[in-house]
Amino acid sequence: MAFAIEEYTLPAPSDIAVKMYEDSAVLWTHVQATFGLALVGLALGTAVGIAVAVLLHIVPPFKTALSPLLVLSQNVPLIALGPLLIIWFGFGTTPKLILLVLVCFFPVALSILVGLGQAEPHLREYLGMIGASRWERFKRLEFPASLTYLFSGLRIAATYVVSSAIVAEWLGAGANTGIGFYLKLKFSGFQQAAVFGSIVCIVVMSLLFFYMVVLAERLVIRWRPRPEPEWKEASS
Amino acid sequence: MSGSDSRGSTLELEGIVKSYRRGKERTLVLNDVSLTVRAGEFVSLIGPSGSGKSTLFRMIGGVEKPDQGRVLIDGEDRTGHKGLISYMPQQAALFPWLKVEDNIRFALVSTGTPKREAKEQAAQWLERIQLGHVAKEYPHVLSGGMQQRISFLRALLMRRSVMCLDEPFAALDALTRADMQRWLLELWEADRRSVLFVTHSIEEALVLSDRIYVLSPAPATVLRELVVPFERPRRADVWTSPEFVELKREVLRLLEEGHSGTV
To answer: A126–B89: do the CB atoms touch at under 8 Å?
Structure first.
């Protein structure tokens, strides 16, 4: 062997595969826990993001006053906030979810906020001329127009949600579940093959989340012209 | 001129003055504009581009208030009141996320038509103007002419007694445009709503209207009011008559005069 790389430095792909197979039962329960946590976190974060953006949009003084706080919420590092949340809320799922909501709501809120202000001027003018109410303007114009923006924010949130869930699990020692917990355990035991195994799980889950958002976007936004030729033919 | 059984109202503008502040200067856009659209009458407003026609529409729609002057509908002061007119803009302004039928339905519902009736009307009328087959399509698959037809239908079906059309055919090619004018006349002559129609095409104004107001360049004021004498329903070849040519020449002369008068 020319390089003499030990398994505890860099395990061969085959070692990782074997380890994952051996640990598959345990790994599966941890994956399920992390997946569930990330899913709930993303859903809550999106809901909070939409609520925040809509509130700031509808009450312009709020936008001026609270926008700096929005940025501030992203400036506190998770590793500082995590332990504090555990002190305040205990070792349950609550502090983990709060962390995930903090991570996910920001890109969603920010992109919707841009989208809500971008609604086409001539449609805005039209609604004004026919005397549509503020609520109708929101429902028929501003919100639908912001949906494409919502999804680009959601893609960012979905990309980060799994890694953030791992950090939350890594920090929140209480409940002994999740890939983050497994990762920490194996790292301490110098079982690098298992560490790489958990990285594989994290990457696969992250991709899964990302494509779930892409799929949802395709299902929700059906009014845009698509480049696929077969679609064009079907419509004529 | 006007049908006694028409569904229209009288629209009067009295001495509308409007200026905008640009930096420290005030620019006068509308200088004492007065005009009347009688019940069931088709009136065109013609003027050079940038003469404040769209600003005038914003006053009628209640989106902006004039500095001076009043907007009266059926004799009542409605200055600054929204939601009294139906409107067709230059761009079709169809909502891209709503299917064609939903575009019509939602506009009708938000202007006071009950939900079920709006749905029935949308379906019925789309069928009637031979666009039933696109009812379930999104607007972006339609041609410009089709989009304008739907936009006009949407304005026509609103429960409003005054229709304001703001250069609705300006973006269409000549062929589609002539086609649309004939189509619009047919629908309008059956219904006789009060219409105020803004255009910068003299032929279009002459083919469609009962009367024409010619506006000066900004700051806009009414240069002349012309009565278009051709009988209703309008013949498709009305533009070939000598009288038509004479009227066209007169409007052109007025527009040129107005132009040289201010520059």
So the answer is: yes
The CATH number of domain B1-85+161-263, selected from 3.40.50.300, 3.40.50.720, 3.40.630.30, 3.40.50.10420: 3.40.50.300
CB of A49 within 8 A of CB of A112?
yes
Phi, psi (deg, nearest 5) at residue B248: -60, -45
**Domain residue extents for chain B:** 1-85+161-263, 91-159
Q: Do A222 and B83 touch (CB under 8 A)?
A: no
Q: How far is CA B138 from CA A215, B46, B56, in A?
A: 20, 33, 32
**Cβ pair B62:A222 closer than 8 A:** no
Query: What does the pLDDT look like over A46-87, one tens digit per residue?
Result: 999 999 999 999 998 888 888 888 888 888 888 888 888 888
Summarize pLDDT for B136-192 with one digit per residue, the tens: 999 999 988 899 989 999 998 998 889 999 988 888 888 888 888 888 898 888 888
For B34, half-sphere exposure in the C-beta direction (CA atoms, 13 angstrom radius) is 5
Shortest distance, CA B187 to any CA of chain A (angstroms): 21
